[in-house]
Design brief:
Elements (H helix, E strand, L loop, with lengths): L16 E5 L4 H13 L3 E6 L4 H14 L9 E5 L11 H10 L2 E4 L10 H19 L7 E6 L13 E2 L14 H18 L4 E6 L1 E3 L12 H12 L1 E4 L3 E2 L1 E3 H12 L8 E3 L6 E2 H11 L4 E4 H11 L7 H7 L16 E2 L18 H14 L1
Parallel strand pairs: 1-2, 1-4, 2-3, 4-5, 5-7, 6-15, 7-12, 8-11, 9-14
Antiparallel strand pairs: 10-13
Helix pairs in contact: 1-7, 4-5, 8-11
Length: 373
């Protein structure tokens, strides 16, 4: 990983309370622990739930699932619903919370790749809109929005070889994925907010893979599901693509450190510091875990997995996920061939952790974690 002598200085001393959305998710668990590590701030987690104990248990279970722990004396639970006006709070509670917050890290999103755009819009766009509204007032609160590299998976970037840390082109998006379209639309909300003077940052994340420190994976990630099916059956689809990914703990580290700086520019970052993994590298790592890995054409592979799922419930999720894409056309999309510029990210890389023991060792640990899920 690159190093820089000009890494931005830490400006966390004036930040006393950070509002975190998405703490019950895969990235959210690591963000929570990293915020507590990098700052002395209190983290106020906005959680959907019927009661504080119920919401607390959601976060605690999520942390335990990823072998993480926190200092609960510095964590507060705020009940709220991103799909509702004022987060579903009373005027008094909403205004009181607004006065306390110094920084917002918005990680909450519906990441389902099975849902259509209209089903995702309320949370991925509407939720962000409400966060931006919350942050906009007499005292403007800095917002870090976690976007996705999937915003480039549309017609206007079809001819590109490299994409840059700059605003998206204003063309009508054409996406296979409703999720990608919702993230594309969300970025325009951020740009509109910035045009009015709001301190908003956009961090475009690649595929988030297992933690570099432990290999612990995301049991619901689409790549994790495909790899699990490969390890379970010793069958692999024949694919030609490269996976740009980032271990979840390194991702959280970068998100927090970038968020702690309120510089006006740059404001868009590609969190893609590592060279992508080729499909052959990934299959080689799988072969170290299961011997005699057989390769099949994608559609034939899916049919085999579908047949195995009749008796193996563990394969149900991947069969459901690929039902609309049995030929795995998603791996021919823009995001698996583009190079992502990281000039804005570079100053933050000097302090960030690197893959422990190298890429191949990381992939092996990642496979081991997937196999245990």
């Amino acid at each position: 990983m690159s190093h820089s002598q000009n890494a931005p200085s830490d400006s966390s001393s004036g930040i006393k309370n950070i509002l975190l959305t998405g703490a019950t998710g895969f990235i959210g668990a690591h963000l929570l622990t990293n915020i507590l590590h990098h700052t002395d701030a209190r983290v106020m987690c906005l959680v959907l739930g019927g009661s504080i104990p119920e919401a607390t248990q959601k976060i605690a279970a999520n942390l335990e699932r990823h072998h993480l722990s926190v200092d609960w004396s510095r964590v507060s639970i705020v009940l709220g619903d991103l799909s509702q006006h004022l987060f579903g709070m009373s005027d008094a509670d909403y205004d009181s919370l607004k006065q306390e917050i110094d920084l917002i890290i918005h990680a909450a999103a519906d990441v389902s790749l099975l849902r259509e755009y209209e089903q995702l819009k309320a949370v991925n766009e509407g939720g962000l809109g409400r966060v931006l509204e919350f942050a906009n007032g007499e005292r403007r609160i800095p917002v870090t929005h976690l976007s996705s590299y999937s915003v480039f998976n549309e017609a206007s970037y079809r001819e590109e070889q490299e994409v840059f840390e700059e605003p998206l082109r204003r063309t009508e998006p054409i996406f296979r994925s409703g999720y990608a379209k919702s993230k594309w639309m969300a970025e325009f909300l951020c740009n509109e907010a910035r045009a009015s003077g709001a301190p908003v940052q956009i961090l475009r994340l690649p595929y988030i893979s297992g933690a570099a420190s432990s290999g612990i994976c995301n049991p619901n990630g689409y790549m994790d599901l495909i790899l699990k099916a490969m390890l379970f059956t010793s069958l692999a689809p024949e694919l030609d693509f490269s996976l740009t990914c980032l271990p979840v703990d390194i991702c959280a580290d970068l998100v927090v450190r970038i968020s702690l700086h309120s510089q006006a520019n740059p404001y868009i970052f590609h969190l893609t510091p590592f060279a992508p993994f080729s499909w052959s590298e990934i299959c080689e790592a799988a072969s170290n875990y299961v011997h005699n890995l057989e390769h099949l054409p994608a559609l034939e592979w899916y049919q085999h997995i579908k047949k195995c799922a009749l008796t193996q419930r563990a394969l149900f999720p991947i069969v459901a996920f690929l039902a609309k894409d049995p030929s795995l056309l998603q791996f021919r999309s823009n995001i698996h061939r583009l190079h992502f510029d990281t000039n804005n990210l570079t100053p933050y890389l000097g302090e960030a952790p690197a893959f422990p023991q190298g890429r191949s060792a990381y992939l092996r640990r990642y496979m081991e974690s997937i196999a245990k899920v």
